[in-house]
Structures are given as C-alpha cells and as structure tokens.
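TA notes. Do not distribute before section.
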Amino acid sequence: MPDLSSAEISRHLDSLAKPPGSLGRLEELAARLCAIQGTLAPVTTPRRLILFAADRGTTAGESIAPMIRAIVSGGAASSVLAKSTNSDLVLIDIGSRADPLPDAPNYRSRKVRRVSRNEAKPYALTADEFRAAFVVGQQEAERAVADGMRVIASGELETNHPDLEAIVARMDRPVPAGTDLVQGLVEIPLAVEVAAIAGLFARAAELGLTIVLDGPTPLAAALVAKHLYPGTSSKIIAAHGDSTAAYETALAKLGVSPLLNGWNLQLGEGVGALLAFPFLDAAAAIASNMATRAVAELAPNAQPAAQPKSARKIAVFTGSFDPPTTFHRRVARLVRGRGFDEVIVRPTGPRESHPDGEHAAPIHRAVMVDLAFRDLPGVSVDLDDLDEGRVLNDYLFDELYADRGEVWHIVSADFLNGGRDGKSAIQTRWEKGAELWRSGRFVVLHPTHAPPNPADLPPVSRLVAVDDHVPTADIRLRVFQGGEAAPDVPEGVAAYIRRYHLFSDFPAPRETRIKLDDPRLMIVADEGNPKAEALANQFRQLESSDPNAILVLGGDGAMLAAIRKHWRQRLPFLGLNAGHLGFLMNEMLPADLAGTELVVYRMPMLRVDTQTPDGRTARALAYVDAWVERDTGQAAWLRVDVDGRTQVPKVVGDGLLVATPSGSSAYARAMGATPVPLSAPVLTLAGSNVFRPRFWKPVALPENAVVRLTNLDETGKRSVRGFLDGQLVGPVAAMEVRVSSVAAVELAFTPQFDLSARLLRSMFPPSEEQ
C-alpha cells in the first residue's frame, strides 16, 4: 500500500470546493482515513463489527449467555444498528460457560477456555492461553480480508473493565533484551477477550484494514497489540470517549482522539463503533467524491472534461450461478472491498448454444441466487434475464445501469487470453466485443499465483485475486451422484437443493417437508387485530433478525400483504389463523416450534403486464389472482387470447379473472370456479356475470399458459380497470398474465393440516347460525 505524506493529503483536502478546514473534524477524519489506507479515495465498506464473548470469574449465577443469544438472534442494540448501517456483525464465543451454538454467519465458537479458574484474579491467563486467544483474533482478521472487508471494529460485552492504568504502566516499563513479551503481559493480568482483540487488531493492521475501537476492553487490546506490533496504532480510529483519566491516557498512548465525545454510551456491544460508521462514510465521501475548486470555479460556458453521470462505481457480475457458490459470494465481497459502491449479480437466462438439461429451472435458480446474496451489504440481484428467458448482451449494461453509476464488467482472466492479438473471447465471441474491449471497464478475476499477462489486459481494468474456484458443473455432478453441495455453496442454498432434489434424477416436487430444528422467525401480525397481536407475543422469543421462516398472524389478507412485501426473502411463510376462514393459514401451531415438521407447498406467483389506454406499460406480481372488470355502468367487452391465439373473440360481462391454485378458493370461487389443490399445476380463468358467450363456464388452463385480456371498446364508454390480489391497478386497455419464472413462495403447514377438508370448507362454509 503506497504511503501518502500528510502534506499530500492536506493539499488534496484543501483543493476541494470549500474553504480550507471548513468541514472541521470531518476533514480531520478524512485525512486519517487517507493516511490509513494510503489513498486519496478511501472506502469504508464492506465492514464488520467483531465481538468476543467470555465469562469472567467463577460465580455460576453470572453468565454472558443471554447477551450472546440476544446478539446472535438479532434482537440486541448492536444487531439492529449493524443492519441499519449496512455492517456485518460476528460474535465469537472465546470463553463463555454456555454450550456452543451451531456455527452461523454471525456466530462462531472458538473457546480458549470456559472461564477463569482464579476467583481472586478473574482475568488471569496463562501464556499459552494468551497465545491461543491471540491466534483466534488473527484468524478473524484474515477471514475479514478474505470476505472483502475494508474496515473492522470491535467493542466489549463485559462491564467489568480491564485495569487500563496497569496496562499503561506495563507498556511504559522498558523491556530488557531477550524478554518474553507475552510472559510479561500475562502478569498484569489480562482477560481472554483482550488477547483475542489484540490479535485481531495486530493482524488487521498488517493486512491494511482500517480499525475502529470502541470501549475500554478494545482500548486495552490496542495497547497490547501496539506493544507486540508497534505499527498497529497507525491504523486505528477511536469511536467514543470516556472522561476517566486512564482512558484519556491510553488514547494518548495510541495517538488518537475519539469521534464521539459526551454521548454517555455505556451499553458496550460496539454500539459506539456502529454509530461512528456514518461519520466515516461522510469523511470518505468528502475525500473521494467532492469536486475541486478548479472544476467548481469553471466559467458558466466552459466545458469540463466528461464525467460519469454518477460518482458511484458498480460492477456487474453475470453467470449461470447454477448453483451460486461460496466462491461467488467471496467475489462479490472482494469487489465491493475494492472501492465499488454496488455489485449487481445478474444470472443469465438460457443460452441456445448451451442446452444443459441438468440445470435447475429458472425459478429455482432465482431462489438460490437470492438466498446466496441477500445478506451481503451493497450487493443486489437483478433477475431480469431469468424472467425474460434471455441473455442480455453485456454492451447494453452501460445504458441499462447508467443511473446507478459507472459500469464495470466482472470477468474471469480466461476471457482475456489472446487479448493482445485481438483474439480474446470478449473480442471474438461477444456481440460488439471489440468495441466493448476498447471502451468498457473490466474487473478481472484471477488466481493469486496466476495473474493474467499484462499484454492481454483491456485498456481499463482492475485485477482482483481470488482463489478456491469450484466449477458449478462439478457441484452438480457431485449432487447427481448422491453427494452434498455443501461446503461449496452457502448453507441456505444447500438446504434448498436438498429440499427440492435439484441436480438429481428426481423431478422437483411441488410439495415437500422441512423440520424447524432451530426456529428463527420474522413475525408479521395483522395490525389492529387484537387476536393476532396476542398470538405474536407468544412467539416473540423466537423472533430474529436472521430468520429462517416468516410467521404471519391474521387472516388471508394479512398473508397476502406479507407475501407482497417479503417474497424476496425466499423463506417459508407459516400462517396462523387469527381471522375468518384462513384458507392459507394453519388453525393451530405448537407453542414451541423447535423440531416441528412442516409440509411446504411451492406456490407460483403471477407476472402481470398491463397496458393503459394511453399506451403506457407496467409490470407487477400477484399471488392469488389478477382480473379486469367494468369501470362504468356498461358491460365490458373483452377478448381472450391464450398463448398468442384468440380463443374467445368477445366476452360480454362484468369482468374476467385469472387465478393461481391459492386464489381458486377466493374471488374465483365466487365466480363459479371450483377450488383446486394448492399443488395443482393449473391456472383458473373465470368470468363475472358473463352474458356472452352463453353458458360460459370457468376453465382450468395449463400452468404455463399465457393469458391476455384485451378491452375491445374504443369509444371510452366501456372502460375497464385492473386489480392484482384485490389491489387496484387503475384503467387498463390490456392485461397479460402468466406464471412468473422467478417469483414463487413457499406456504408451510403442519402435517395435521387437511387440505381436502379445507377445500370442502371453502366450498361449503358452516352457516353463521352454527
């Protein structure tokens, strides 16, 4: 990493379009970031807060276990603030009494010991224990770099703070030649978290990460890290201050001053670091994106050099992602860590030149990609190619994403071979590839020990080294032969592959079963429904910011609203009826969902394209039904086309409706349609008060049918309006309905749920007198 002198940094900040020093401490923070990262364009994302948990002393009644559970479940202040600041949060159990939880993206058990054995010295560590904890911290720093982090932070979970005065005094004492530094440190004594955070900070500084410390325990760790690795303090930023003399003395030893003074933050959990992150973002934006005075002071008629429409940089990552792998996740994080504001993951549609029968269907690929990338800050998924069943040419991305920033293309180094002679895959096989080679921007992925030949690089490119690539074809073959996709795919993707028998010689089922061994819920209760709110309180202990199921409390309307809002979470929807009929809901659920077996129905959603009378078009999704109905006192005149062919030239009536199996028991039933099983691969076409053709009857169409309803009236006297799941769309001239290739939901029911009985109840509901 290149070194920048303080003079160079000052000249850059003073040259910006503002009076020198007018941004006060924000400029000081910007200068600090530039110095730490060795660049005038620092970045502060991706970032991670790493917390180390341990019990101190031998009092059995005192345990840090409840705090561990609160943070891991997502209910703690640090969990909430991490999500609001787009920050990773990981908790490492370094020494609690609690039994380890299963490893998860935000939790790892790496116990050096369960608790101090010395009641009089609850912090005491042996030299071997110190070294073991220090290594755990170093490994977390290395993992952060591998995951693409640019900033790491740590806080404390104990209010019993270390003796800063003793640590400062030990640091000031001269160290005789040949002295074992670790043996000298453990005489203080130190808590196991101090040793772990010291390892984290020391290795993070070596790897060039920006470090944010928050609280006395990380401050003590920073002093220890500086003692062992003197360069550590040059990478540190202090989040919040403390009025005690020992705290101020320790900060002075590191040469840093806190960002947040007078905030009276006493909770711990790294909250101060999380609150400091937006200030870091602002400082980085000032240094990286502000115009200079030379540009700002151009005469009104002067033409500055062409600038991108946005200072943001985005990288487009295309591929089959069939399945998406841990390698793909690592690429997205690494690219984000190279100064890109956003990575857009864009799974491609089917290629005519590569018909691969073993690949998952588009709906399954869409679900897997969402599951793989949904928790990565700054990473979005664009399913447009899968939805359209196509592969959009890369040269169109500049125009497609122009409003989001400067577009870069993520490619493998293999695509560049022969570039010096104009024979690379990009130049010879991509449409307009030679033009894109000259004018485009490329992020080039390559193994660490095999960088591409510089002569083969396109004019604008950035190299990103990334290892451990496993071809998706190898994973598919392994699954087909009876093996597991894990560990080469994220666990959520592996579970989905198992659930639907993907990449095997079994067809993907419409109905399957899962077991909630570790229920973590997103709870959605029908607002204003007292019964739903009371039921919600019974399940609050299972609520989590990292859910594996969505519990919906209310009636079918509450379920529809939850599906519209949360379907991209790709989690099973588990309903509990607190309304009326509740066709989509369970009537009862066990109070403790742990170990509960559920029957899961994979239900399609409808893609609905509408055209207004003035020619505007729009696209939306529906879960149960889409319909058009008359908007005046005159009957509607409608034409019905199925798969591009006119099937009914003229329908005269109040309206027409297309329903999924989930909707067949709702408005479609009121139009005379027969409810069908949830797993039935059909669409229902029904009519309301149809006068012509005579003897109109609802019909069941194949699930892959494309139904177009067109208003035949051109006078305006027989206007029609559209509805999706009961929500008004407005005036329409035509509505085209098909099953979406990328949108579906999973409805979960207990095995006691009797679908046949529920269908009969929907057709013959009990009388209100009973």
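Switch to the second chain here.
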Amino acid sequence: MLGLSIPPGGPGIRPTWASSAKDLVTTALGTGRVWVTLGHGILNEIYWPTTGTPQTRDLGFIVASPNGWFEVKRINRYAVSTPAPSVPLPYVVHQGEDYQLILEILPDPLRDVVQISYQLIGEDLKLYALLAPHLGNSGERNNARAGEELSAWRGESALCLAGDGGFSRSSAGYVGYSDGWQDFDQNGRMTWTYAEATEGNVALFGELQSNQGTLALGFADTPQGARTLAYASLADGFASTRQRFIDAWQDWGRTLTFPDTTAEIEREARLSALVLKVHEDRTYPGAMVASLSVPWGNFNDSSGGYHLVWPRDCVEAGLALIAVGQIDDARRMLSYLISTQFFDGRWAQNSFPDGRPFWGGVQLDEVAFPIILAAKLSERGSLAESGRAVFMIRRAVHYIVHNGPITAQDRWEENAGVSPFTLAIEIAALVGAADFFDDRDERMYCLSLADYWNERIEDWTYIDQGPLAQPHGVDGYYVRIGPPPTQCGLRGRVGLRNRSGESIAAVAMVGMEFLYLVRLGLRRATDPRIQNTLKIAEALLAVETPQGVAYRRYNEDGYGEHADGSPFDGSGIGRAWPLLTGERGHYELQFGRDPLPYLETMARMTGPSGLLPEQVWDGPALPELGLEPGKPTGGAMPLVWAHAEFLKLLYAREQGRPLELLDAVEKHFGGEPPKNGTWHWRDDTPFEILPDRRDFLVEAPTSFMLHFGFDGWQQIDDRLSAPLAFGRHGVRLSQDELSGHQIVDFKLYFVDEARWDGVDRRVRLRVESPINTGSR
C-alpha cells in the first residue's frame, strides 16, 4: 500500500480521553499486562504495562454499506454479554439497519496483547478499524505509521494492530483533520492513504481484507516488539487463547465466597468482585487504581484521571476482598502499601502504580487505613509476615501522633480540619496498632491518645443548636468538617472547593462522615447526636430517584455536572454517590434493621452491564446527554470504592457487623467515649477546661521546660519534659497534683532553641465531668 505524502492538520485537535461511561473492564489472569475498557460497544482506553498508563483513546469500527456508512459507537445500538458472571470476556453485538457486527474482546493471558474477534454480517459491506493512540498516558506528540499493520510510538511506548486477514488499505492522520472519520465525513468513503503522521494527536485507519477474522493489538517498548507480540498471539489462535482466558477466570471464580442472598444481589456481588480483581496491577502486584476511567474523559486529557492508587480506595478494596474470601489478594495490597510508604510514615495522596506521587496532599485517613487493613488481617490470623507490617504501623502511628487529629485534607480532598470520618479512622487505627507493639509505652500512648481524641470528637465536630438544628427539629448535629481549633474551630468557615472561592460557615454544612463514628465502634447507633445528624442528612442530602434513595456528599457540594448536564469543569453541582447509599446501609444494619433495600438500590444505580459509578444523576432527565435520574453521570465508572462498599455491606449483613469494626476497638470502647484517663494538651488542639478524673499532659514535638503554677500563678514550679513514645515529649500533672486547685497556669520554654513560646496559658479544672453534649 503506497501512502500519500504528509497528512494535513498536524498536530490535530486538542486530545481527550474516551467517555467514562464504561460497559465493562477486563484483563487476563496470567503474565499478560493489558487492561481493556469498553464503552459504547467498542474498546476504549487500554492500559499497559500497568493500570496507571493508558495507551489508547479508543479502537472502534466503521461499517460501509450501499446505504451509507456508520460508526458503530455513534449508532449506539448494541448489547454486551459474557459467557459467565465471573468471566470478563465481552461479547458485543452491534445491530444496524442492514448489518450486524459481532465483536469478542480477549486479552491474551500470555502476552501484552488484546485480540479482537470480529464478524460483519450483511450484504455488500466493508469494515474499517479506527485506532486512536494515546501512548504513554497522553494524546500529544504521538507518531503513527500505516502499512500492512497499524503502528504507533511515543517515547518508550509502542503499539501494533495486526490482523490474520490483513488490511487492504490503511492511513495515518491527525485527529479532527485527516483521520479516518473525517475521510468518511467529507468523502463518504475511504479515499486517503497517508503513510505517516508524527508529533501530534494522531489516528490510524484501516480497511479490513475480510469481514470475519481476528485482530491483535500488541504493546511493547518498540513498534517491532509490539508487532512481534501481536503476530505471536495470532499464531496461537483465538480459540486456544480464549479457552486459556476462560479457564483462569473460572478457577478464580470458584474461590469466591458469598452469603445467601437474592439472585440480583449475588449477580452484582460477583461483578463487584470481578471489577476489583480486574483493577489489580500485575507489574506492581497489590496496587489497585481507583478506576480504569477518566471522569468526564471525553472533555479532557488529564494524565491522572482515576487511574491512580489512592491508599484509602486500595484499603477499601482490600477489605472487600477479605469479605469474599480473597485473603491473598488483601495481603498483596498490604505488601504494596508497605512498599510505597514514605519514610516519615505517610503515603502520597495518590500515586501511579509504581509509587510515583501524582498529587501532593496529605490525608490522615489514608495514613491510618493501612493500619486497619493490617489489624483486620491479624484478627483473622492471616498476616503472613508481621515484621514489616509492624515497621509500617509504627511509622504510620508516628505520623498520626505528630500530625493528627487535624488532617490537611478530608476524604473528599478539599478541606483541612477535623473530619468525623478521618478522626474515626485515626482513633480506630491507634487502638488497632496498640496490639502490634511489644513496648508498653508505645501501647499505652496509642490507647491514651485514642481515648483523648475520642472524648474530644464532639468538641471538634458537634454543634449544639446551630443554624440547621431548629429547622429540622433537633438540638445539635455533627458537621461535615470542623476547621482547626486554632482557626476558630466550629465558629470558623470552610472553603467550598468547587465553588470558585466561596466559603460557608462550618456549622452550616453536614455530610455523611458522622456515620463512621458508629461503623467503627466509637458511638452507638442509638446515640441521640447520631440520630440528630441523620435527620438533617436525610433532609439535606438524600435524593429520591427512580432507582431508590441516593445521597450527596454534603450540602453545597460543587463536584458534578452543571444543571444543564454540561460536564464538571472545576465547578458544578455535587450529585449523589451510590457508595454513600452503602454507608447509609451499614448504619441501618447497626441500628438493627435489614440493609437489603440499600443493596438493592445500589444494584439498580448501575450502568447497562452492572458497573457502579462514582455519581448518579439526580436532576430532571436529559436523554440527549444520556443522563437519567438514578443512573450514572459522566463521573468515573466503574468506581472501585463503590464496588468495595457493596461487597462489604453484603458481608456485614450476613455477619451482623461491619467488616471494618475491629475487635480491639469494640472491646476498648464499646461504642462509648472513655470517662477517665489523660487529656493531651497541644498547641494546635488546646482546651480551656479539663474534666475531673483526668491527668493533664502537656505535649510538644521537641523537649521543653514547663513553667507552671496554680490559681493565678501560685506555687510556681519548673519541670523538664520527659520523652514519650513516638518521639513526643511531655510533662504530666497527675490527678493528685491537680487536686484542690481550680486553674493551671503555664507556659513553655524550648530548651534546645533557648526561647519561650511567648504565651501565658491557663486551663480551668472542672470538679465534676458532666456528659459531653457537644461544642459550645
């Protein structure tokens, strides 16, 4: 095939990814390292050699007939099926007026190749393949060559699309100007045969010799290597490769354990387990990205998307895999997290599977979650090698101790402060960690700090009265996040991240975070404060849809489509999240009711093939945009976290308790805050009143001298700090020393720096400790 010279239009239009509306995700269980996503009945992003590196935008087809030409994804009349619930082998049937196109998409278990079996049925038809490379995680500066095969390369990534019947003609061009779709749109048929397009947003186009056969798309670090793999896979044959693929997935499917439930729920549970398994990396075992999709991907070319590892999502998935009997998978995730922990004990906010950080934030729930996973595995006697786990836990606790309870970012990656969700995870992690330490001082410090933070939950995150109380008939409620105590605390304001610089009073915003106080065993489901907040959440966050009740993250959320359905562009309207329906179902269980309706609602809020999305549409139907109430929006789909939540709720329903609820936490707290112990005074979390039956521990990260007195600087004394566990320093005033006094006056002198902290401080001593009903 002789090509024309240089295609016009370079470097092409601005590249984007495919829509996040996925039909299925698939990969082979073997040495092959290719992950395939399907959307609108064609191949979308294909990832290689890790789940964090997409290499294509899409691979689709045009059918040419005497009546015209049809791009099958735009016709959008197709059905997807698989041979069995636990076998992600997509069989796609596109139905046109005078044609039927049958595709079967098969990742090769042995090679970095995906095979595509195709059959075009009808009279006088021709089939054309359209391939859009986005090599190395970008649509920019790609290079494409058309010949007997379709090849592309960029840096150290390359691909080759070959067929057992070959191409009769092919062309390379620039997207939006000289690609195959433009050729058909302008000329009604294939007329261009450009040999090469370089340094741009490129596309490849080929006319297939036969209307039935097999294509093989190979990936390697050179075009020649990709070609070799593609032809080797074709030489193995589709049938034998298919059987190898099916056998491996069926063997895995037989290891799954599910409780007895309805057929609908079991079907969704099997798909959820499959989604989690597909998302695990094989180049970096144990790494699990949040989603093999890019939210609103058809409008941007983000190099991150959701194909990144968030420690939180990874642990959520690990716990869900425990729920379905996949202990080895959960252990691999823990090993991966151990390997990617920073020296100071934290993890990157998110990272590529190889551990390279993407965003630079710090979320303390992500520091604490790996401890929860290790503790859960340990409870089950499934922690294979505890030495490295203990090392990880000690470093993570060190970071939490020095930086908690205030998180730089909440779980929605938006605000600093004290979040009920994050705080609950931190406290549970400290209690769970204590059992791993042989050193008594470390154990006791973990428990003491956990007790203290537990007692202060309401001081930091619960408001008596408040602007939302009276309108909803309650006397107080937990806020979504409390600003740091030194920044006005509950009297402060919270920035609305996706609302162009707007802010709101902290006490005017609620979320679903408070439910984790119950889920992790820190408060009882019947606690009046929990009940109060639930009443407000149901009024402000619950959304009735034809599929059931869904919940928004918080009032005034701006992360979602605009009212007219246009995509999130840095601002929008926060939509409902199916995973929050799962969180609400967990509370229902702990209150003593059956959470089955919540599972059923989640199972209905899926895409056509059962994938759970990040968000569902909660506005009026906009069918022209594919937005239907209670059905997926343009956010990420599938969302690993949502599928994990579904599996954990199903497990919890059978067991009668949440999977995250650690035995150690339940035994230590019993759903109630402690009523004695030690209060840890720190300059970022000070307090004005010390309840009775409490020791007073003044803490700092470095050594200091405490200059103190009582009741207006009487009985003045100086006391050098003593080393505490995890590198802290402190001076303890016991209950006996405090007895008979009403006020402690104090200030700190930092010896190594030869400076006073410059502030005279005082704490009042309360004779009796009334029940803590929240912040004043």
